[in-house]
Design goal:
two-stranded antiparallel ribbon; 12 helices; 310 residues; 2 domains; Peroxidase, domain 1; mainly alpha; Peroxidase, domain 2
């Protein structure tokens, strides 16, 4: 079954990419990428943690039904959406996407997809945080389905490397790309309920464990940075931290312990430039998972709502 899914994925991928290109909106909406960047910059100036929020949104969107902006759909009475799924309850960045879409609709109505907005906004936020700058093909269209049960396949914070790898493999991603993409945790944060069960774990640095116990005792909802060194800078400090047993989440600590991933963690910890280049490549590939192009899907007028149909 897994072979069939992967074969189908790689069979369709070249055809999908042929209908996407860098500068897709150069004629239909020449200022599209500038408008997106300006809105992202405004939000980033107000809250630098938005980079981690967008990276998580982009990942959660692409790994469910493909990069189709299905994660943005609001639930309606009797019809829950992906937003209500447990893994998505703490996803952030929806207001930024709304602001971008509003500006784009004023400039170029019904032209730029919400799926492309997520992809481009994430790319820009990563660069603003000191991460790699890269060109990315656009031309995605928005999906027509958003079901909470589809999000159950997302890897959780307590996953082992092998468990997470199964999900990445089903989406056409390699082990190296998985370790690379999880480096996004260098600008992410979590909450105590996602790691409180491992505060006495021997694979967690004693001093960090003591600090986290105090934080969680004061306020269980307090944000805790996944990179305790440079939480607002997109760098390779995350890998250095997890090698020192300072990985807050179980999956992060496992990256540094599992024989299949430890080597790449060490490589990235010692070579930040290598990590940044690999990250750009992995993001470009992830952004092409399950894309809708041409006449598939739609271009939503409001990213939270499917367009009306007769």
């Amino acid at each position: 079954m897994k072979f069939t899914i992967l074969f189908f994925f790689f069979l369709l991928l070249p055809f999908a990419l042929a209908d996407m290109r860098v500068g897709f909106y150069s004629s239909s909406c020449p200022r599209a990428e500038d408008i997106i960047r300006q809105v992202v910059q405004k939000h980033f100036n107000q809250d630098r943690s938005i980079t981690g929020g967008l990276l998580r949104m982009h990942f959660h969107d692409c790994f469910v039904k493909g990069c189709d902006a299905s994660i943005l759909i609001d639930s309606t009475k009797g019809k829950p959406s992906e937003k209500t799924a447990s893994p998505n309850l703490t996803v952030r960045g929806y207001k930024m996407i709304d602001d971008i879409k509003r500006s784009l609709e004023q400039a170029c109505p019904s032209t730029v997809s919400c799926a492309d907005i997520i992809t481009l906004a994430t790319r820009d936020a990563v660069a603003m945080a000191g991460g790699p700058r890269y060109n990315i093909a656009t031309g995605r269209r928005d999906g027509l389905v958003s079901n909470p049960s589809d999000a159950d396949k997302l890897p959780g914070p307590n996953s082992h490397v092998s468990d997470a790898m199964e999900i990445f493999t089903l989406n056409g991603m390699t082990l190296n790309e998985m370790v690379t993409l999880l480096g996004a945790h260098t600008v992410g944060f979590t909450h105590c309920n996602f790691f409180s069960d491992r505060l006495n774990d021997t694979n967690l640095d004693i001093d960090l464990a003591a600090k986290l116990k105090k934080t969680c005792a004061k306020n269980n909802a307090s944000p805790v940075f996944l990179d305790q060194s440079t939480p607002f800078v997109f760098d390779n400090q995350f890998y250095k931290q997890i090698l020192l047993k300072r990985g807050v989440l179980f999956i992060d600590s496992q990256l540094a312990l599992d024989p299949s991933s430890r080597g790449l963690v060490s490589t990235f910890a010692s070579n930040g430039d290598n990590f940044q280049q690999r990250f750009a490549d992995a993001m470009i590939k992830m952004g092409n998972i399950g894309v809708l192009v041409n006449n598939d899907g739609e271009i939503r007028n409001n990213c939270r709502v499917f367009n009306r149909r007769s």
